[in-house]
Structures are given as C-alpha cells and as structure tokens.
Task: inverse folding
C-alpha cells in the first residue's frame, strides 16, 4: 500500500479526518500548529466541509469542540501544552459532562522548551481529569490512534487526551492510511441533562467517571498500543512511554533488547502488565518524556519493595527531552562521551526578520524609555518577545498569553510610572481584551501598545482574529477614542511615534497605541503567490 | 543500507528543501525514512537543524544518536561545526563555504574554515558561487545535495526525479537549473576529493 509522508501532527490530522471527524478547533502554538494547518489544506476536509477555522484561543477551541460532541458529531481540538492551561476550565469539566460524539483533546508538549516558556507534561492533566490518555510513539500510531480515540470516547462517553511531544509532532515518516469512515449524524445526548453541571447532576456524573476508572484500566491492558515484550535478562524491567520506546529500541536495532520492556502508549497504566514486570524483574527503569509521572506512581504504590529508577534518582536528567544516548546510559549505566563543539562557533539566537515593523516600533519605544530607565515594559508571547534580546533589550516580562496588559495594570496599581504593555494583535484577541477591560473600569494610568502585524507571526502566519477590528474592540471596551492611536511603524515615522508615545504616557488614563504594518513573512508569501 | 544525515543552516535558508529532495528519492527507492525538523522560534534567523534518517530497515528513533551521523550536510560553514557532536568517526562534513552573517559576533571566516579543515573527512564547497555561475543563485541548496550525492547510496536519477517533483510546478526552466546545480555540486565534490 502506498504510504503518505507525514509529520506526526499531520498523521493525527489525517487520521481524524479519515475516522469521520466533523470539526477541528485550535489556536496556533508550536509544536501543535501543523495539526490544524493540515486539516485546512486537506482536500477531503474541504469536500466534506469539516470545520477548520482557527479559534480565538484554546478555551474557545475546546468549548466549540465539546459543543460539536454534544451535538453527536466527532470533533477534535488541538493546542500546545501551555494552551491546555487556557482551556483547562473546559477540559476538567468536560471529563464530568463526558462526550456524546467522540472527542479528542490533542496536546503537543515541548520538552526542552524549543519554542515555549515551560515544559509542563500534559499527562498530569489527563491524570488530574481521570480520563484515558494516548501517547503515540510513531507517526503511524498518531494516525491509528485517531480512530481508536474516537471509538473509546464514544464507548465510554468520555473525552480522550492525546499527547504528542515536539520530536514526534515535527518528524516525518511514511504512514499507511485506512478507508475513511462516514461522519456521525446530528444526534443530541440521550440524557438531556448530561451537560448540565449543576451540583446535583455533577455529583452523579463524577461518580460515573470514577466508576469508569476500572474500565479505562482494562482498556489500557487490552490496548493495541501497549505491548509487553519479553526479555531474557530479568535484572532490569523497562517501562518505555510514548516516543522514549523508540530511543530505547534504537540502541538494540539488531539484537533486540535483552530486558523485558513494557511499551506504554495508553493510560491509565495497564496495571496487569506493570504487575507482571515488577514481579519478574529485580529493578524497574521508567523512560518518559516530561515529568516523572509513572515513576512517581510506581514508587507510590510499590513502596520500597522494588527499586524504581528514572528521572528522580538521576538515572535520567530531571528536565529536558530524552534521546537515544541518555536512554542507553540509563539502561547500562555507562556514561557517554560526546565531541565538543569548536570554540569558534558563536551562538545564533533567533531575531526579527529584515524589515519587520516591530523593529521600528521598539526603536521608538526605546528612545522614549531612555528618559525613564529600565523596567517599565511588560510584554507578552509572540515574535515581539525577541525584543528581550540584544540589541533591543526593550521588554521586562513574557509570562503567558495576555499577561502584558494585566501585569502592567498591577505594576501601575503599585505605583510604577510609566507602565507600558506591549502585546501582539493575535495575542490581544486571544487573552488581552479582558485585561484591558479591567484597566478601563479603573482608568488605570498605563499605555498599551498593540503591535499589529495582522497575523499570528511566530507560528508561521496564521489568520488573526484582530484584523480590522482592533480599534472597534478597544472602543467597545471603553477606551476613549482620542487615546486609541494607529501609527505606521516605519523609519520615516520615527519622530511621530516617539511624540505619540510620550504624549500618551503623559495622559492620565488608559491609552492604546497600535503600530500597524503587515508581517514580512506573510507579505513575502502573498507577493510570491501573486507573481 | 543506513544513512544518518544532519542537515544544518540558518532559519530561512531553506534546509527543508534539501530534506524534501533526499526524502522523496529515499521513499521512491523503497527505503524507510524519518526526518525530524525544527519549527517555531528558531526559524526566525536562528540556527536550525534537521535529522534525516534513511535506511533499508525500519527506523526507530526520530533523532540521530550523538556520534552516529554519517554526514553533516550544512549550507552554512559555522553551522556545520555546531553539530560535530553528532558526527561518527568516519563521517563526512559537507559544507557550503559562504557564511551567513546575521549576528554581531560572527567569527573570522578563515578561523571557521581552518576548523573545518581539521575534520578528517570534509568537503568545503562554495555553493553560493557555483549557483551564481550557472545563473541560478536560488539553487544553492541543490548544489549541496549534488555535493553529497556520492555518499547517499541513493540512485542519482532518483534525486533528479525528486527535484522534478518539488520544482515541477515552477516550470521547466527552474527544474533544469536545479538539476544543473545538482550536477555541478556532484562534479565539484568529486574534484575536491581527488585533489
């Protein structure tokens, strides 16, 4: 059979389309962005009119996907790990409401923080919400798991968390596809109060979720994605979760692993297999990307009767992503030597593209801020965060989507003057608007700069909800229209921008300055397409 | 057959077109392939790398182990050195010699070249210059594929086919220029090794 060459993200998307998905909801975030992008490019998604527009943020995406499940159809939402924090309210409660049509919450974690502000492990959320979780080890599993996930989601009326990590999200390999399934018909839940989480109903639903735990464990024990592979040498038993299974097998390409291996790609942990491994082997090594979740669980319920190694006892590093060398060292205890990088090699951090409008905006801001000294600019998540680096050194924070405005507000409340927030257009419509409302209500003395490049730039130029709406949104939230000022960030407008920033700092209240110029990446792409 | 290749360069230089051509040729030859890419922040002018693995047997890890790469194929000289921890003892460093200088503290290019010359198996090729000489500066990446072609154990015709597949929509002229670049790279590489 002919295979498609797909990224892990794309394989999941193709699997979901083929498994009868009716709607996909997402906000861009590395390394999850390509799931939605693939659905948007897909011919069959277009033919079947699968919903595939970006959402304002991860919470609205998760809620819309849940709504589609409520209506009986199969849906998926996708986000990066920190996006699940934004969607957590919906996510946790959807474990209690349960699903009607099958629904998948696909989350791509970023161990080693290649493009993120932390490396939280989304499996914590799955365990927290008490729902089944899948963690593929290959592109083929990404594809196959979409079918499996929708099936178990509908069998137990429960959302499924599917966890990817960067390496699988962004690695390409051949994937064999299956015949596609038809979409579900529109069908409301049999119990019309299933989704009404009033306390009396929620208590009942929660007991049902708890009662299902045993069945979820059975599902894991019988899952085609969990595998017990026997080995002769019982001195060690290895539990390899998700992609770490590949790093292990990489080291035993020709010979096969001499130790028994339990490959885990579906949670809750398959208890029967874990008990078999622990009863047969003298010691257990847990290989997992992210937090030592399985390791802690084993240590918890097996006490001191068995030795468990992993990230907690130093067999593996406590943080960062795994690789074949680290895994081999954890198995055989032999440290590995790596060649050093010649001293002549200089670091090459990412930077603004040539001609980027953010450069002109920051040059103007920097000139004004010279009068006030460092520490006045709270910023946010996006390309413009690169101004934290030399030569700009313009910003003093990058915490979470939207935090620039609310942190600037808090700092202004504390007496910081001037208090400046710098946020991008897409980040503003993601989570900045509500914070601006807080500031308007109290007429906080602060300046908000919305750097409008009319796209979600850092993730590669996805549509921004803010296009053509920023001024009316700010007006609607109650910012005085004389203090909503658009400027064009160009070198020739430098003096004008400096004057406006100064003027608005001196206005006692909320000002919004919107430097507006299209992203160089999207502009280049458009110019190329028009040729 | 197994070839583990680190592709390296600077975000925006287009190392992924190299991965796509070699990947296409590998799949078309019935081989297994895995290719890990870098997306996100580093694509904005930072250092980028891709792990490209091709084999006649199933491939497990998406990442090449340290000391395991058969080839470091780099379109920027300093970037070829950044990945030396991945190079195997008998591995080859095949690198463009034209620097991409987008940082304030880019080292003296001669010092970079001296470092590259210390590597037992290396090919230094001015792919930018060769591409310019054939009147197609954009084809620098395909010059580099050509320079590596003798080491790939993949039929040269399959690489040509890969170029046809990728650049086909851009017209016959673009295809021709890129195939010419492929040949020029191969030619130079052979000469470099026999000097």
Result:
């Amino acid at each position: 059979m002919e295979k498609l060459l797909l990224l892990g993200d794309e394989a999941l998307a193709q699997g979901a389309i083929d498994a009868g998905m009716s709607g996909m909801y997402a906000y861009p975030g590395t390394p999850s962005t390509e799931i939605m992008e693939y659905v948007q490019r897909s011919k069959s998604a277009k033919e079947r009119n699968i919903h595939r527009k970006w959402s304002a943020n991860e919470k609205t995406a998760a809620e819309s996907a849940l709504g589609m499940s409520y209506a009986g159809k199969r849906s998926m939402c996708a986000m990066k790990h920190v996006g699940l924090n934004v969607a957590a309210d919906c996510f946790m409660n959807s474990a209690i409401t349960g699903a009607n049509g099958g629904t998948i919450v696909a989350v791509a974690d970023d161990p080693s923080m290649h493009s993120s502000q932390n490396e939280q492990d989304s499996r914590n959320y799955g365990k927290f919400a008490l729902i089944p979780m899948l963690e593929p080890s290959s592109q083929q599993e990404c594809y196959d798991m979409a079918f499996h996930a929708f099936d178990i989601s509908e069998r137990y009326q429960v959302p499924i968390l599917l966890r990817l990590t960067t390496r699988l999200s962004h690695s390409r390999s051949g994937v064999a596809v299956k015949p596609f399934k038809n979409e579900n018909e529109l069908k409301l839940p049999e119990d019309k109060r299933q989704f009404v989480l009033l306390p009396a109903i929620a208590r009942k639903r929660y007991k049902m979720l708890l009662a299902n735990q045993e069945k979820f464990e059975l599902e894991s024990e019988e899952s085609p994605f969990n595998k017990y592979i026997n080995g002769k040498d019982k001195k060690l038993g290895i539990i390899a979760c998700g992609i770490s299974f590949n790093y292990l097998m990489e080291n035993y390409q020709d010979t096969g692993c001499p130790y028994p291996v339990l490959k885990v790609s579906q949670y809750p942990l398959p208890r029967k297999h874990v008990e078999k491994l622990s009863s047969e082997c003298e010691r257990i090594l847990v290989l997992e990307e992210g937090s030592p979740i399985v390791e802690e669980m084993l240590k918890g319920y097996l006490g001191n009767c068995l030795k468990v190694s992993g990230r907690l006892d130093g067999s593996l590093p406590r943080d960062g992503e795994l690789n074949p060398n680290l895994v081999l060292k954890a198995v055989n205890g032999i440290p590995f030597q790596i060649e050093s990088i010649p001293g002549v090699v200089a670091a090459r951090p990412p930077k603004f593209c040539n001609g980027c409008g953010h450069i002109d905006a920051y040059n103007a801001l920097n000139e004004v801020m010279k009068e006030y000294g460092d520490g006045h600019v709270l910023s946010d998540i996006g390309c413009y965060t690169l101004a934290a680096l030399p030569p700009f050194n313009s910003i003093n924070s990058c915490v979470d989507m939207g935090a620039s405005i609310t942190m600037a507000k808090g700092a202004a409340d504390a007496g910081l003057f001037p208090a400046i927030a710098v946020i991008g257009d897409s980040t503003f419509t993601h989570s900045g608007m509500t914070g601006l409302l807080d500031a308007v209500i109290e007429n906080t003395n602060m300046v908000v700069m919305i750097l409008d490049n009319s796209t979600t730039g850092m993730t590669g130029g996805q549509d921004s909800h803010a296009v053509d709406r920023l001024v009316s949104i700010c007006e609607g939230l109650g910012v005085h229209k004389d203090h909503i000022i658009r400027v064009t960030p160009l070198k020739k407008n430098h003096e004008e921008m400096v004057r406006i920033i100064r003027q608005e700092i001196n206005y006692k209240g909320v000002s919004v300055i919107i430097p507006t110029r299209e992203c160089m990446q999207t502009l280049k792409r458009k110019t190329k397409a028009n040729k | 057959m197994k070839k583990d290749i680190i592709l390296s360069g600077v975000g925006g230089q287009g190392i992924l077109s190299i991965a796509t051509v070699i990947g296409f040729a590998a799949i078309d030859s019935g081989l297994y392939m895995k290719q890990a890419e870098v997306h996100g922040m580093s694509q904005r002018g930072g250092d980028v790398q891709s792990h490209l693995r091709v084999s006649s047997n199933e491939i497990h890890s998406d990442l090449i182990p340290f000391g395991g790469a058969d080839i470091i194929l780099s379109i920027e000289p300093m970037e070829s050195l950044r990945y030396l921890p991945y190079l195997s003892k008998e591995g080859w460093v095949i690198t463009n010699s034209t620097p991409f200088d987008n940082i304030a503290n880019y080292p003296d290019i001669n010092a970079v070249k001296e470092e590259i010359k210390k590597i037992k198996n290396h090919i230094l090729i001015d792919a930018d210059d060769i591409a310019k000489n054939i009147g197609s500066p954009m084809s620098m990446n395909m010059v580099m594929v050509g320079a590596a072609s003798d080491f790939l154990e993949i039929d040269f015709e399959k690489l040509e086919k890969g170029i046809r597949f990728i650049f086909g929509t851009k017209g016959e002229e673009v295809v021709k220029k890129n195939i010419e670049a492929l040949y020029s790279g191969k030619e130079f590489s052979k000469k470099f090794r026999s000097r």
User: Anything to note?
Assistant: The first strand of chain A starts at residue 3 and ends at 7.
